Amino acid sequence: MKREQGASPAQDAANNTESASLLDGLIVEGSRGQYRVETAAGALLCTIRGRLRKELAYGRGDEGRRGVRRVKVKAHDPVTVGDRVRVLPTGGGLGVIEAVLAGGSAISRRDPDKGGGTLRSVAGIDQLVAVFAAREPEPHLGLLDRFLVLAESEEITALVCINKADLGIAPPLAVRLDLYARLGYPVVRCSAAHGDGIDRLRTRLAGHVSAFVGASGVGKSSLLNAVEPGLGLRVSSVSGVTNKGMHTTTGTRLVPLGGPAGGYIADTAGIRAFALDGAGIERLDWCFPEFRPSLGRCPHADCTHRHEPACAVREALAAGAVDDQRYRSYLRLYAEGVGSVT
Ligand code: GDP
Ligand code: ZN
Q1: pLDDT tens track for 149-188
Q2: 219 C-alpha to ligand 1 centroid (Å)
Q3: Contact, 39 vs 87, CB < 8 A?
Q4: Please, what is the Cα angle at 223 between 222 and 224, to 5 degrees?
Q5: Hey, which of 7, 157, 238, 288 would disulfide with 267, CB 3.0 to 4.6 Å?
Q6: CB count, 10 Å around CB of 24?
Q7: Kind and range of the H or E element at 85?
Q8: Predicted TM-score (pTM) of this structure
């Protein structure tokens, strides 16, 4: 989104003199007027320029009815974790947010008609890492389908990570994993305990804002620590802790990864609940990529793909182009009311 500054010539001149010392950064934590911004020169504790706050809160007056509805959200907090911003360092680790960079404020990307936030809008998350153990606990792939539906709905990358590969991947699980790979979801088999596959995981995380989701005990914190010592602890220390001097009400924080390509791990507090709740998922059928060739080809315009005669999805199922367990996941999520189909 292009964001006009609406600045007077005098302000422009002032901006130009300041611009030499302006830094680009990412809001990794904070809300309600105080934000931690990661920049190339380190983290700065920032406030937001009053002019910018007003501009974001009241818009430019040409957004119609939607603009009016957005005001309420932005007036509450004009920028949020995951926003890319330009800051003016003011010394002593402090700074002022002067502008929101291309991509706009995450809040303005939130569709007011959908209500609530999305992973992207909550923290700029662009990758979901669904973690399962090869065993202990036994993997529950119904849960994986749920995570994948969430990722599809948000149009973010999804990665299937099978940890504890050292315990052995049973042949039936291996068959299921091949299916997911064919559907286009990369599958990384690894062992946090032995280090196998951790390089591949690290490569996948570089340059992304990733959220790890998965049942407790599958090894999420062990994996993060294997990727980078101390990372698991840094991520888990977020939950319930209010950082000194920060009014963190959102509970969302981005933890920077080391390495030249950068990248962040999003604190997962609340994300699993978000996935399980399924709120905000619009087209459940579209969230199953293998259904897509059939969509629009059912005789019933509002086909739910459950019992309608000559349903193209069910024909694909009968022909083996759609996997039976995946279809059952669809039925289960449909029955739960996750997303609307029509
Ligand atoms: P989390 O709840 O998902 O964060 O899981 P943890 O990282 O706390 O790990 C849960 C348990 O699994 C711990 O006892 C770990 O030592 C163990 N664990 C983690 N990764 C591996 C692995 O790759 N192989 C084996 N065998 N055990 C692991
Ligand atoms: Zn159908």
Answers
A1: 988 888 889 999 999 999 999 999 999 999 999 999 999 9
A2: 4
A3: yes
A4: 95
A5: 238
A6: 14
A7: strand 84-91
A8: 0.72
